[in-house]
# Entry
Amino acid sequence: MNGGTGIAVGMATNCAPHNLGEVVDGICATIDNPEITTQELLTHIQGPDFPTGCTILGRRGVQDYAATGRGSVKVRGRAEVIENKKGREQIVITEIPFAVNRAKLVERIAELANAKVLPEISAVRDESDENTRVVVDLKRDARAQVVLNNLYKHTALQTSFSVNMLAIDNRRPRLLSIKDAIECYIEHRREVILRRTRYLLGKAEEQAEKLEAYLLALGNLDDFIKMIRDSKTRDEAREKIKAYTFDPADAEKLGILLRNQESLQIIDGRYVLTDRQVDHILELRLYQLVGLERDKIKKQYDELLEEIKDLLDILAREERVLQIIKDELNEIKDKHATPRRTDFGEDEGEIANVELIANDANLITISHRGFIKRTSTAEYRIQNRGGKGLKGMETREAVDEEDEEDFVEHLFSATAHDYLMFFTDTGRVYVERVYQIPEGSRTSKGRSIKNLLNLQPEEKIAAVLRIEAVGAEDKDATFVDDKFVLFATRSGKVKKTALSGFRNYMKNGIIAIRIEEGNELIDVKLTNGDNDICLVTNQGYCVRCNESTIRPMGRPSAGVAGIKPREGDFLVALALAGDTNAQLLVASEKGLGKRTPFEEYPTKGRGGKGLITMKVTEKTGAVVGALAVTDEDELMLMTDAGQSVRIRCADVSVIGRNTQGVKLMNLKGEEKIQDIARVVSDDLEDEEEDSEEKADASAEGGDEAGASTEEE
# Structure
C-alpha cells in the first residue's frame, strides 16, 4: 500500500506506506474471516514499512491508527558507533526517516555543532552514493551514545509520522481504521470485478451472436443461398433473411446454447435473427463455407460458450468474486512483494532529558547584570592557596561612565541532572534543570538569564538552590514532604517551607517567600527539618541554632527572626552544621579565610546577636560568605573582576573563631572576593602546580590575631 498525502482543500490525509506482501495477507485474511479483529489483522500487517527502512519505536502508535485511523508513529534512523583507523569514535548514519531530506539533516547537525549545542562533534560529512552514509566525527573525550541520543532529540534523525487515514468513501470523507480501509478496498475490488465481468460477458455475447449466425447459416446453407440469389438488392436479401426463423430445438441441434439472448426475445418460442446477425450472414465469405472453416467456427463457439458460462457463474456467485480478488492479489504479491525494510524496536518512552547528557559536575556563574552559564569543573585546575587564579568569567564592560562594570554575583556547583531553584529578590522561584543552562567556556560571558527564565520586569536572581534529582522525571520523588527549604534574609529573618510546596512549579514562577520592603533574600538551603544552622553576618558574627525552633510555614509567609544584627550589620551567609567532621569556613572580601570547628559555636536559641566568628579588621575586610566544608572538599573563589581560583579546603588552616584567618587568594588593586562556593567532587586528577605560587602564603597572611572579648 503506497503512502498518500492530501485530498483537497479543507481535507488532509496522511497514510503511511506498508509492505505489499503484508497488506495482501491482511486482505486475504479479511476475506476469509469478515469478523477478523484489529489485533488479528496486525499479525498480518505489522505496521508501516518505509522505503527508507529505519526503526519504529514501539507499537502503540500502530495500534492507535489501526483501530481508529489516527495515530503517531515514532521513527528512528539507523546509526552505529564505530572506531576509525585513528581510534576515534564515529557515528555512521545509514538510514534516515521517511520524507526527511538528507542534505538538510547534515546541515542541521553542522548547525548544532557550530552553535555548541553538540560540542562533542568535530565534523560531519555526507558520504552517500545510492545508499545513505552520513559520518559524524566525535572528539576524543566525547561519549558516543550521549551524542547519538542528542541527535535523536535535536534533529530529524528521530521523528514522528502522524497517520491520518481520511478518505472519500461513498462521496463523503471518512476516517478509516485499518479494517475499514481493507473492507472498502475489498468492496472496491468487488465492484471492479463485477463491472469487468459484465463488460467481458457483453463482448463475449457479441462474438457468440456472430458465431451463432454463422452456424445457423451453415446449417441451412441451401435456403440462405437461394434467398440471396433470388433477391435483386441487398435490402431485399436482408429482409428475406430477417424473416427466416428457426425452431429452438433445431438451433440446439446445431450446437447453439439457448440462454437469455436477444434472438429468443424477438418472437416468443422462435429463434429470430437479429439485425447484427443478418449483417454477419450477408458478409459471410465463400472460403468460410468449406468444411475446415466450419469446424473452426464451431470450435471457437464452443470455447466462447465456456467463457460465457464462467462469466455468468462469477456474476451469480459471490464466493467466486472474492476468490478472484485473492488470486489476483496473490499474483501481484508473488511478482512484486519485497522483504520488510522497517523493523520494530522497544519504545522506552520519550527520551528523558537527563539521558541526553553526561551527569558531570558543572560550575554555574551568574553575573550582576544577569549573564548565566555553566562550565565543566574540568576547566579549572587545582592550585595552591595564595595563587593568582584563572580567568573565570568575562564580565560586561561599562558602556559609559554611569554604567558600572559588571561583576560575578553568584557562583555554585551542581551536576547536570539536578534541578535548580532560582529565587528572586521579589520572592518568586523559578525551576530549571542544570543541563538547560547555556554552556560556556571558562572565559565566556554567558547568556542573559532572561533567555532562560521568564523573569518579571526589574526582577533579579537573589539565591539559587540545587535539588538533587531522584529518577528521570519523578517530581514526586524529588520534591518530598520530609525535606525543607530554609530561607535567610538580609535582615536576619529565617523561614522554613516543605520542599513539596514547590513541586508544582510553573514556567512563569511561583511565590516562594514574602519579602518585606527594604529586605532581601540572602541564601537558601535544603534541610531535613532538624539541622543545626549558622547565620553569619557581614561584621563577622554568627548565631547557631536548631531549625526545629523554626516552624514550617507556607510559601507566601515572611518568616521569623533568626539573628538580630547590630546596627549597620546584616546577614551574609547561611550554613548547615550537620557533619561532625565539617568546619565553618569563613572568607573575607580581601582574600583571607579560615576554618573553625562547629564545636566552637554553641547551639543557642534563634534571635540572638551572635558570637564572633571572624575578627573583622581593615586587613581582612568584611565577611562575604561562609560554608560548611570538610577536608575532602574543594573551594571556588571568584572576585568582582571575574578572577577565579580553585583550592583544596584541606589547605585552609583550622583556627579559632576570633581570628583573622590566612590568605586564600592574591588580589590585585581594589579587587575583592565576591562569592565562594564548594565544588562538587568529580575525581579530577591534580594538574601540574605552578611552582611560583608555592611561596609561604601562610607567613604572608596567616598570623593569628589576639583574642578579644566574645559578644553574644
